[in-house]
# Entry
Amino acid sequence: MQIVAKSLLAALALLAGAHSVAAERPNIVFIMSDDHAVKAVSAYGNAIMQTPNIDRLAQEGMRFDRAYVGNAICGPSRATMLTGMHSHGNGFYSNEWSGPFDGSQQTLPKLLKAGGYQTAVVGKWHLYSDPVGFDHWEVITNAFEQGTYFNPHFRSAAGVEETTGYVADLVTDKAINWLEEARGSDAPFFLIYNHKTPHRDWMPGPEELRNWDEGARVPEPPTLLRDLEGLTEARREARMTIRDYMTDNDVKLSQSKNFTPQQQALWDGAFAAGNRAFEEADLDGDDEVRWKYQRYIKSYIGSVKSMDRQIGRLLDYLQEKGLADNTIVVYTSDQGFFLGENGWFDKRWIDEASARIPLLVRWPGRVAPGSVNTDMVQNIDFAPTLLAAAGLAPQTPMHGMSLLPHLGGDGNIAPRDLYYHFYENPGFHGVARHYGIHTPTHKLAYYYENDEWELFEFASDPTDQVNLYGRPGQEALTAELKQRLAALRAQYAVPETDPEVPWWHGPVIRLMEQLMKFM
Ligand code: CA
# Structure
């Protein structure tokens, strides 16, 4: 009898335990890197490099293959992540001229905090105003909110802190320090763990500098030397070719870094001999483009590797402390990046290379390990999804929708079109303003300053090479897509006119671009 009672008690305890786990709200770690293209995440296959730690999230969770941002530029993408709103809904249209982010509006961290979560943001912020809605914030800071790769400054409620070390390592130290504190409370936590890497000027960390292999060659994209003649004026007039706009600083031929002597020695050990060989070889034309591409892409890869290792350290921490089972971990980037396609670097375009993002979600017990989702999803969905995961809802409607049905793998997901709108012109790289639509099968873009259109088919042309707009046989499809684009603009109430930009902004940017060539 006693044994039965004991067993019964044990069973009840188990049930109670199971119940409390089920009712326990998940912790959330949201990892956003900067300019990390899908092509440089090995979980996506055919990658230019290996990212073993980021890949763990795909192996243990879900990989989204059709995830996009609505405006492929740093600050606006981050504002969308925080608000679940497209740029016109949150007011942050541009890094350069739309002013500081308005932290008084509804945001994900504020709603989670009000809902009982402990909240923190560590690392890249790029919204100029101080973070609102966080119990703790430590963001990298300098004049353009980019921070530096080595010895970055961090801004917090306590002021500005000067540090020594590599940015990915320091951001991770700070994230883990906060998690140590957060573990002391019963309340679930929400941590935004944002990396600066691999943003321009693509500086690898110490270990990658030590292992730098000047002779190694990364395969060139087939369009590295593409002739842009015959394309739209928007494409021909953009200022983002490796050939003409990649600077000596970008390719490590010059540097004005705030290194310690030890860091300087590592840097010189990696690049000095290669720089001398380059000067002696006196390359020009296509040969010089190829050389610059190698320096660029290998630096980019080194920067990603430095970050990937640190992400592994954070995932290990969650595991070791028993937090992994009840923590949602999201990995994404604020947009993609051109890695030499069309001869370009940078982002901004509606193209797959630029508007598409890596998106991996690990949620043990909820998301099947190794699952793949091919539905159309967008960065407007992050906030509604994480709120829903926490059992909360927005107070005022957001543009995005919860992806919980996708994550559970049991939802009937209706096909969906995504809206895209890039505003930052005048701006660095001179990419014309455009809006457009991503459908599961096509994209249609309208460059409204130039009155030019582009139409690309996804399955046969995944790198947006062949503009079908205006070609015979495309009339019906084009008309339909224009209608769907108009419907999206109506759905999101996109204003007919854009914000005013001061007349002097364009000339100042062009001057800065010229000056950067001599840095
Ligand atoms: Ca970015």
Observations:
- Residues 34-35, 74, 199, 334-335 surround calcium ion (CB under 6 Å).
- Confidence is low (pLDDT under 50) at residues 1-22.
- The two ends are 84 Å apart (CA to CA).
- The first strand starts at residue 27 and ends at 33.
